[in-house]
Design a protein that fits this description.
This protein is mainly α. It has seven helices and no strands. The radius of gyration is 18 Å and the shape is elongated. Helices cover 78% and strands 0% of the residues. Helix 2 crosses helix 4 and helix 3 runs antiparallel to helix 7.
Length: 159
């Protein structure tokens, strides 16, 4: 991570880092980050639970069609506000083991979601009669990763 320290310091010293440390930038980004997390985790948790078999009277394709855009919007909001929050204290955060672990868990969760989309997007209509084991494993991994990323994110403030 020491190779990234100059980049982190540049980000922290740039207008974004300065703006985040002054006035309402940080509190506003923090609130929007929480809104994005609620959108992302709420949508993902409901969809994953449905994929795992809960709420079988609701067809998987309809649940996915309803919740996926909300989850994607939440993820985009979390990413944008996360960069803003990071910019406020980038040089300290770049060396944080918890931050590194959080980013690793988020990477696994995003890769899992993308792989799920590639593998199962066109097969959701069959899910209600023959849910694939790998698809269910992907949903379970998602239910593990996203809340873990949230917990790790909160722990960053205490290190």
């Amino acid at each position: 991570m020491s190779a990234l320290m100059p980049l982190a310091q540049t980000l922290e010293d740039a207008w974004l880092g300065q703006w985040m440390r002054a006035g309402w930038g940080y509190p506003a980004a923090n609130v929007l980050h929480l809104v994005g997390l609620a959108m992302l985790l709420g949508a993902i948790a409901l969809l994953d639970l449905r994929l795992l078999g809960y709420g079988r009277r609701l067809p998987v394709p309809e649940v996915s069609r309803l919740l996926t855009p909300l989850g994607v919007a939440g993820l985009l909001l979390v990413c944008v506000t996360g960069v803003c929050l990071f910019a406020a204290d980038a040089s300290a955060l770049i060396g944080s083991r918890i931050m590194q672990l959080k980013l690793g868990v988020v990477a696994v969760a995003v890769i899992n979601a993308l792989a799920f989309g590639v593998c199962f997007r066109d097969r959701l209509a069959d899910w209600d009669t023959r849910p694939p084991r790998l698809g269910r494993a992907s949903a379970a991994l998602s239910l593990l990763c996203w809340p873990l990323a949230l917990v790790l994110g909160r722990l960053i403030a205490y290190t």
